[in-house]
Structures are given as structure tokens and as C-alpha cells.
Amino acid sequence: MSDAPVIEIRNLHKAYGSLEVIKGVDITAPKGCVVSLIGSSGSGKSTILRCCNLLEDSQQGDILFKGEPVKWHGTGHGRRPADPKQVLRIRTNLSMVFQQFNLWSHLTILQNVMEAPVTVLGRDRDEVEAKARHYLDKVGIGDKADAWPAQLSGGQQQRAAIARALCMEPEALLFDEPTSALDPELEQEVVRVIKALAEEGRTMLIVTHDMKMAADVSDHVVFLHQGLIEEQGAPDQLFGSPKSERLQGFLRSTT
Ligand code: ADP
Ligand code: MG
């Protein structure tokens, strides 16, 4: 099973009540690969990410983590993950970075990065602190360890959120529009960190509106339209010679 993809979703279906938003989607993120999800607002990108780490229920289809299928209990709208230990294992191994950073304002940057490894994983505090400082250095804000989130720029806060995700030492990172709350000049400092992570062979699933970043960092790009994959492929192919008219129109609208 060692070469199984870190994340695999097969024929995923998800509805909010009677609103069907994911209508049979397959996505695979092999180890060391970066897969980007692009598409218009409302096409289902965030929902797919949230289904992957089981923050959201889904009604049909399989979700596999390193070849291990999620065990379900019930069917359709009653379907829930059956094994809380499996849910915890998957969630702690797929660390999510959100558009709005979601740092805890009452904790320092260092405390933010240390919180989950200490409280959720039960790791030794001193070891976690050393790791947290290492990851803060890595994202270029080692000097902000004792600052409060409100004292940091948006780009610095997002880099802190990335350090926090890394400190969980997850199998993969999930990014939901990591740069879209940032001013263009701050966006670049976050893009540089994500690029460096891609270069060191991290497995990542990235939802982004930044087509340049998607083209630069991805091994595979998936274009979603109304809950279905409209087109997918290597970035050169997808951005260089898009086949579907919808993708062509979408790419025109984003440049
Ligand atoms: P994207 O991230 O591509 O913009 P989303 O996954 O957020 O798209 O949303 C897909 C669809 O699901 C949209 O029509 C959205 O309005 C709907 N949706 C998202 N979250 C909820 C929710 N909690 N309750 C009801 N509908 C939702
Ligand atoms: Mg979204």
C-alpha cells in the first residue's frame, strides 16, 4: 500500500439538502504531487476539500487515505464516517489552510503553531516547540514567534497558518484559496512558501483563483464546473491548450 495515493476520491456525491453540489467527482493526489482545483465560485471546490478531510458528510462515493477507504455507517443523507479513530487519523494527516487564516487571536504565533500537536496529538511540549520554531523559520517569520496574530500582516498571518499546518507533520496539505484574502504584494510571499513546499515534494491539494500559481506549482490541474470535472490535465496542457469552451471562457475571465 506504500505507493497508494495519499488522497483518492471516487465518484463523490454531495448535496446540501436537495441541492446537489458534487455530482460524481474522482480526484487522486499521489504522494509528492500537487493537484490544483480551479473553477468559478460555487463550482464545488471548497466542498470537495472539506469532504476529503471529513469536515463535511457526503452521500455517495469512496474516499481513500493512503489506500485505506473511509468506513461508513448508513447510506445517502444518513451516511456518516463509522470509525472516530479513523476520522481523527485522516483529519490530523490532512492539514488544512484556509483563506481567512483562522489563527487564534488570544494565542501568540508560537502558541498557535504548537496548539494542535500538543493538545490533539499529545506530543511532548519541548519537542513541539523546537519543531514550531523550525517551521516558523521555514516560512520566514521566526522573529514573530512571540507576536500576537493582530500584530502581523495578512501575508505573515497566512505564513503562520502554514507553519501551524506543517507542525502537524501531515501526509498532505489542503489549501482553500490561501492567497485570495491578501493584497497582491503580500500574495507573493505566500506563493513563494507554497512553491518551496511543492519543490520539496509535499503532497498538496490546492484550491486557488491564482492561475499563475496553479500553473507554476501543480503537477495536475482539475477544472470544475457545477460539481463535475469539466476538464483536467497537466498545467501546460490545461492552460496552454484548453479544450472545453467553458474552460476557455473561465481562463479569459481570470486574466
Ligand atoms: P466553491 O468553493 O467552488 O466556490 P463551494 O464548494 O463553496 O464552491 O460551494 C458549492 C455549492 O454549494 C454552492 O452552490 C454553494 O452555495 C453551496 N454550499 C456551500 N456550502 C453550503 C452550505 N453549508 N449549505 C448549503 N449550501 C452550501
Ligand atoms: Mg470556495
UniProtKB/TrEMBL annotation:
Molecular function via GO: ABC-type amino acid transporter activity; ATP binding; ATP hydrolysis activity
PROSITE patterns: ABC_TRANSPORTER_1 (PS00211), ABC_TRANSPORTER_2 (PS50893)
Topology class, membrane: Peripheral membrane protein
Compartments, as annotated in UniProt: Cell membrane
The ABC transporter domain, residue ranges: 7-251
Keyword terms: ATP-binding, Cell membrane, Membrane, Nucleotide-binding, Transport
Pfam families associated with the record: ABC_tran
One Gene Ontology term, aspect cellular component: plasma membrane
Keyword ATP-binding assigned: yes
UniProt keyword annotation of Transmembrane present: no
InterPro entries xrefs: AAA+_ATPase, ABC_ATPase_HisP-typ, ABC_transporter-like_ATP-bd, ABC_transporter-like_CS, MetN_ABC_transporter-like, P-loop_NTPase
Major location category of this protein: membrane
Similarity comment: family membership: Belongs to the ABC transporter superfamily.
The protein's name in its UniProt record: ATP-binding cassette domain-containing protein
